[in-house]
Amino acid sequence: MLQRPKFISIHVFRFILRQQTYHIHQLRPKSSRPYYNRHDDEEDERIRKRKENPEGHLHLFKSKGQHLLTNQRVLDTIVRKSDIKPTDTVLEIGPGTGNLTVKLLEVARKVVAVEIDKRMVEVLQNRVKASAFEDRLTVLCKDALKTEFPHFDLVVANIPYGISSPLVAKLVFGVNPYRSATLLLQKEFARRLLANPGDSDFNRLAVNVKLVAEVEFVRDVSKRDFSPCPKVDSSVVIIRPKAEIPDVDFGEWCAFTKTCFSKKNKTLGATFKQKKKVMELFKLSEGIGSKEDSAVRLHDCYPSGDGNVEVEMRTDVLETGASLFKDKLVGILKSGGFEDKRPSKLSNEDLLHLLSLFNQAGIHFHDRAKPGDASITACFVE
User: CA separation (Å) from 380 to 167, 244, 258?
Assistant: First the structure.
């Protein structure tokens, strides 16, 4: 008699099936491929990028103008346009992590890099250490505005925006002779450097620079070519010192142009009739300081009837002298045909002629200064 098969519950059947499947998997050959961990790959990628981009792990301060140029084509253009000779020593201001420095080292005899940020200095030195040009680099961890530059033939630099004016002043009015300065500047600042009389951007900055140098436009640079990205675009310009410069005291020239361009679209007649400006120039001309100063030397230009002058400073005497001095200023402007002229439309030759007329009349705008004096840089900054 045949026996009926015993009923197997569904739960038992499923258990048996799982056991068989497990044994089958155990019999399969194990893969030689190690366990894949996505996080390990991500960490390797971060390390690789850090080696290729050493500034990636640095916190860059936009407030200090730490915007690193990363576009290789722009970097190559800067180096090419600088016309660097194999015998040249190049001064680089603000090298950062060395994107431009490494390219300069390939073509120059020596590079002197001035960098104020110690973190950048460490990255730069480590970056160059592995190259064949380590002996060509000298790094000065100093403030470029306060340190005395060693000898150099050229300047090639991506200048921090915040120190553009005083640094350009230090270069063009400094004591170091050099062939040219290729500078990456904020676009607006570069346009002001390049402006000519009659241009809307023409200002005292252009007047002062063009007294001693020629400025050439090279190219514009997009803000997207920097890391981190600044808010504005930049431009590359080349400044070349003139072989011959006018025989003029630089300190007085800067003070004179500051007076003229205080309101560049006002007529010079209106500027030199302002009571505050007249009093300032009058006191400078007469050697008068504060109201407590004694011995007002009015008798030098305006003697009284009896040949005596009040020694005690009195407001009425000071105002009388200033009024006469204003007439003198206006007379000088009229004699040269400058009373109705506007500074924004005058060339350097025009301004030099006007300054000579004032000097011939015994009127000066600043104590005499020498190239490199701090007073020149101070009056250069707008």
Answer: 10, 21, 8
pTM of the model: 0.75
pLDDT value for 132: 87
Residue 203 in contact with residue 181, Cβ under 8 Å? no
Q: How far apart are CA 259 and CA 280, in angstroms?
A: 11
Furthest C-alpha separation in the chain: 163
Is 293 annotated for ligand binding? no
Task: Say how far apart CA 81 and CA 87 lie, in whole Å.
Answer: 16
293: left (phi over 0), alpha (psi -120 to 50) or beta: beta
Is 252 labelled as part of a ligand binding site? Answer: no
Whether 372 has a pLDDT exceeding 80, the answer reads no
* pLDDT tens for each residue of 325-344: 999 999 999 999 999 999 99
Query: What single-letter DSSP state applies at residue 148?
Result: P
Is 352 annotated in a binding site? The answer is: no
Please, are residues 126 and 101 in contact by the beta-carbon 8 Å criterion? no
Query: Has 158 been labeled as part of a binding site?
Result: yes
Would you say 37 is a known binding-site residue?
no
**Are 116 and 142 contacting, i.e. CB atoms less than 8 angstroms apart?**
yes
Check if the beta carbon of residue 103 is closer than 8 Å to that of residue 80.
no
Judge residue 104's burial from the number of C-beta atoms within 10 Å of its C-beta, 0-12 exposed, 13-18 middle, 19 or more buried.
Answer: buried
Query: Is 355 annotated to bind ligand?
Result: no
What digits encode the pLDDT tens for the residues 49-77?
444 444 445 655 554 556 789 999 999 99
Q: What angle do CA 141, 142, 143 make, to 5 degrees?
A: 145
The enclosing H or E element of 267 equals: none
Residue 257 is predicted with a pLDDT of 94
> CB within 8 A of 206, min separation 6: which ones?
192, 193, 194, 195, 196, 215
What is the number of other CB atoms lying within 10 angstroms of the CB of residue 167?
Answer: 22
CA angle 234/237/243 to nearest 5° reads 160
Q: In whole angstroms, what is the distance from residue 179 CA to residue 177 CA? A: 7
Q: How far apart are CA 93 and CA 119, in angstroms?
A: 15
Share of the chain above pLDDT 70, in %: 70
* Strand-pair partners of 113: 92, 139
